[in-house]
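Lay summary. Proteins are chains of building blocks that fold into shapes, and those shapes determine what they do. In this project we predict the shape from the chain. Here is one chain we studied, written as its sequence of building blocks.
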Amino acid sequence: MKIVATFKRVPTTEAQAKVGGDGKTLDPAGWQYMASFYDEIAVEAALQTKEKHGGDVTVLTLGPSEASKEVREFLARGADSGVILKDADPAARDPRWTAKALAAKVQALGADVVFTGRVATDRDNAAVGPMLATYLGWACVTEVVALEISGAAGTAQRETEHGVETVAFSLPAVITCNKGLNEPRRPNLKGIMAAKSKPIAEESPSDAGAQAVVLSVELPPARKAGRIVGEGLAGVPALVDALKNEAKIL
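And here is the predicted shape, written in a compact code that computers can read:
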């Protein structure tokens, strides 16, 4: 089975957002980077699928050459190879552009199944996975929290606003992975040593052409400083008065 797991290199949660000088981008000075949280779950799902059904796992990303750090970590966890669709400015790409570029490479790899995170933790679009499936013409199951694959078919449980839904699907398919599906493993020393000899390819992505362009970026207004209106039961009247007459939410 040919298995692909996609991931996105995103700023760590400690990154402080600052608007860049052009007013259209964020200033990345001083940022550290990591693989998006849900994409780690996707890679783990890919590795578990390989362990159950055989085959090989390719981790695929669209981003700068520096993403090789995250690719190498996933190789240390057990992935067989990595591909970076080299793009120095991935933040300028809309989900359609990204999905089309990924779809072209997935087709070239001859994949049977693709695992993605349910959403990237920087832009929060949750659009690339379903768009990727659309361009491939594959089944798509989103928000997956439990998964079973048998032969050319599978069943999955997915979280919805109304509860957990169980669906059946056939391969090839794109699976977007949610928290609870698994617990991502950490690389051991043997995996770290083996990763040094595993291949990482850097290629130019196909240019799909962006349909959405960022016109401006601005930070939300600063929140007003809080204050203590009282302590214990004695503070309740003052709190109610503030909620009613200042915040006007009562």
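What the prediction tells us: The chain has a mean pLDDT of 92.
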